[in-house]
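User: I'm curious whether this sequence folds into something compact or stays loose and floppy. Could you predict its structure so I can see for myself?
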Amino acid sequence: MMQTLTLTRRAAMLGAAASLSGCSALSSLNAAATPLDTYDLSPAAGSTSGGRSGGTLLIATPNAPAAIASDRIMVKPGAASITYLPEARWSDELPALVQSLLVRSIAGTGRMGYVGPNEAGPVPDLALLTRIDAFQVEVAGAAVIAKIDLSLTLLRDRDQSVIKTAVFRNQTAAANDTPVAIVAAFQAILDALLPQMADWSVTV
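Assistant: Here's the prediction. I'll summarize afterward.
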């Protein structure tokens, strides 16, 4: 595995490459076909107590900006700069990964008759729409901040009426700028947000 570069150095490399060729340094790294370490994230179920329903809830594939909707871990070294962590990637494209986390976290409450992705399953009673507004690392001085911002909308499927909407967001500093520490920071955020989103989704 490649020796880890600091985010500061990564940003400098990427800026220099952009000024010379108009391309990010990441393009050449990808072209070299160097295997990337793959990281997964774990679900976190909400409360198993409370009201129960035999209804069905389908989770739509989340919408996300093109820069986020990939299997790469996005880094923002500055307000107008976007790049990706060179040594790492997610286990799936981010919208599919977030969809899976929501399905498993909501199903883990045991409070719905069926919870599954919109690609399969019975005719739903309810549908959950998700917009990923942020799922990235931001560099603030010496700090490396993981940030997640998700907007959820719960619909009644039969007439597509909106039941409720909510925004779930949080951020936390990674212990350092290594991929392992950055992924751990994302997981810490999800450990707090996923139970909140699960409880919100099954309470109608």
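Summary: Helices lie at 7-21, 25-31, 94-107, 179-202. The chain has one domain: 7-202.
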